[in-house]
Structures are given as C-alpha cells and as structure tokens.
C-alpha cells in the first residue's frame, strides 16, 4: 500500500521502518528534518510537507504528540481534510482526547475520508519489535481495510467501538501504567530503606502475582536510576489529563487516577518532564527525603 506517515519520533520512526520492511511504500514527514533521516535509511521517502505526504497515499498514519498537532495536520490549510482525496483513510495512532478523534472523524466523513483512532501501547520496544497493542475506534469496515497494516506494527489488535473509543481504552491503559510505575517506585524505596537488595526483591515480585510487563522491562533501569525515554513524563502528564477528562465526561470518580496524575504533575514540576515516566521514582524518593 501507499502509506503517508506523519510524526517520526520515538514511536513513529520504528513503526514506519517496519512498514517499509513489510513491503509498503512509505512517504514520511516530520517537522524536525533530522527525524526523517532514519526513514530514508530504512528505504522510505522523506517528504517536504504534510501535503506532499498525503499526495499519493491510500492511508495516512499520524503519530504526533497531542491533540493540537493532530488537529493542525487534519484541519490545517495544507492538511488532510483539505488535500486528502475521497477514499483516503486517516489512521491516527497518537494518544489524544477522544473528543479530538470524534471531531476529526466527523469532519473527514463530510469529505469522503475515513478516520480511525488507533492509539498504541507497548512503548518504544513494542514499536521496534512490531508487537504493539492497538485499540481501534471507528467504523468496522475501515478497521477491516487497515487491519493488514496494523498487523505489521502490532500483535494485539482490537476494534473496541466507534470513533473515540480507542482513545478511551488508551486512557484506561495509561492510568493503569501510571499506577504500576508509582507502586514499583514505592517498592524500590521501601526495599532500599529496609536494607534489602531491590534486585532480588523485584526479581521475586516479577515472578508472582505482582508481576507485570513494567517489572519485567524496567525494574533494572529503575534500580540503576536510568531514565532515558522511552515515554516522556510530559506525555504521560498529557495522558492523565485525558483520563481525568474522560472520567468527568463519563460521570465517574477515579480517586487513584487523581493521585497518580498529581505525582506525575510533581515529576514535571520538579523538572523531569523530558525523562522517562519511570522517573516517577524521583518523586517518591523526594517525598521521603
Ligand atoms: P515524540 O515526541 O518522540 O514524536 C513526535 C514527533 O512528532 C516528533 O518527532 C515531532 O517533531 C513530530 N511533530 C510534532 N508536531 C508535528 C507536526 N505538526 N507535523 C509533523 N511532525 C510533527 O513522541 P512519541 O514518544 O513518538 O509519541 C508519539 C505519540 O505516541 C504520543 O501521542 C504518545 O503519547 C504516544 N505513545 C508514545 C509511547 C512511547 O513509549 N513513547 C507509547 C505509546 C504511545
């Protein structure tokens, strides 16, 4: 397929490279020119603008930081809705507000363009390995059309409902992930303060009921205080805001989510916004100093 790929950051770059490797023609664009080098090296083509990326595409994937960037690419003068031909499918794999996905899908439909929200979980590792979990909102027939593409970048791929539903599932994912990081951080602080080796302590936890992908992949780097992103605190802060807004809209109270959101806000306020979200450990440590 001819795929346009907009947003070649930590996640987008390896995802686009995997699509090239699977035999797709990928034209990519990122507002930072140096972000396009990796795509060219992988065999894709770098474009000079959003419009150029869209020109030949049957499917346009966006992997952008937040709602304003997705809205700019969708609604901008040179954007998807102005330049896209009827029949085009916009597959937004960024994590944004459900409301943004619904607004884009409604406006796109008027132009004969299909739009799906398909946020992902699995981190940079999952993007590199092509093993992401993907939660998709939108029309079932559009999901069926892009299913082969999603199968290149992910392994758990579920159509979860209409437009915006993918983002709601992602919000649920992010509050769980944030909570687990917070509790792993507290476990490390407790073990170290008690004079117990956190390596052997967390090895045992990883094999029992407390085991999780986060413990498997991140316990060693957390114990060593290595916080290179990965997934930036700034982005998780954005996601907790989305989760809290979704809870308000649904009329439910999520008290633990509120607490985790405040801890992530503290990490940001302490200047750790560009570190990996496992740097939540720094906040728990500071509370205890
Ligand atoms: P990133 O900041 O590394 O990449 C985003 C890229 O978008 C950057 O290279 C930036 O230059 C580019 N960009 C921004 N505005 C643009 C525009 N208007 N036009 C073209 N390019 C533009 O972020 P990331 O970590 O790759 O995350 C991307 C999305 O995926 C976010 O919504 C994030 O929440 C989500 N996500 C990230 C991870 C992770 O582990 N990093 C995991 C799951 C989901």
Automatic annotation (TrEMBL):
GO molecular function, one term: 2-hydroxy-3-oxopropionate reductase activity
Active-site residues (renumbered): 170
Keyword NAD assigned: yes
Pfam families registered for this protein in UniProt: NAD_binding_11, NAD_binding_2
Domain 3-hydroxyisobutyrate dehydrogenase-like NAD-binding per the UniProt entry, residue ranges: 164-284
UniProt keyword terms in alphabetical order: NAD, Oxidoreductase
GO BP: any one term: glyoxylate metabolic process
Cross-referenced InterPro entries: 3-OH-isobutyrate_DH-rel_CS, 6-PGluconate_DH-like_C_sf, 6PGD_dom2, 6PGDH_NADP-bd, HIBADH-like_NADP-bd, HIBADH-related, NAD(P)-bd_dom_sf, Tartro_sem_red
Keyword ATP-binding on entry: no
Domain 6-phosphogluconate dehydrogenase NADP-binding: from-to ranges: 2-161
Family, per entry: Belongs to the HIBADH-related family.
Alphabetical list of PANTHER family matching this protein: 3-HYDROXYISOBUTYRATE DEHYDROGENASE-LIKE 1, MITOCHONDRIAL-RELATED
Protein name according to UniProt: 2-hydroxy-3-oxopropionate reductase
